[in-house]
Design brief:
This protein has one domain: Beta Barrel (OB fold (Dihydrolipoamide Acetyltransferase, E2P)), CATH 2.40.50. Helix content is about 10%, strand content about 50%. The protein is built from two helices and six strands. A hairpin with a 5-residue loop joins strand 2 and strand 3. The termini are far apart. About 10% of the residues have low confidence.
């Protein structure tokens, strides 16, 4: 058996608020898009920002993570690429790529005074 690897690591901004739906009493799926940018110089020597959009699928996210994801927020994503095909209503075959996340870390601090006060009280014994 040959070794293979399907792994993606992204840091980018959410392009829209996440949408969560329940697929059973115990499972939910959350979908959102993430934009990443690559900068390069064109033939004229001018900097160009190239944006790539990624569709992300996350299963059973915690309320904490969902509460820290919103349009414009910065996020770290680990996962794998999943490609699929489907037939649209006109009979045309369409392809789509998604990132099936295995790890999500919000990189923006949530602006919640009550939550920040709780954290201060909980961390008073820590040496750092």
């Amino acid at each position: 058996m040959a070794f293979s690897l399907n792994r993606v690591t992204l840091i980018g901004q959410l392009g829209r608020d996440p949408e969560t739906r329940f697929v059973s009493d115990t499972s939910s799926v959350t979908n959102f898009s993430v934009a990443t940018q690559n900068s390069y110089k064109d033939k004229s020597g001018n900097w160009v920002n190239d944006t790539t959009w990624h569709n992300v699928v996350a299963w059973n996210l915690s309320e904490f993570i969902k509460g820290n994801l919103h349009k414009g927020s910065k996020v770290y994503i680990e996962g794998r690429i999943f490609n699929s095909e489907y037939t649209d209503k006109n009979g045309d075959t369409k392809r789509k790529s998604e990132i099936i996340s295995t790890n999500i870390i919000p990189l923006d601090a949530k602006k919640n005074d009550a939550h920040q006060e709780d954290e201060k009280e909980d961390n008073t014994d820590l040496p750092f």
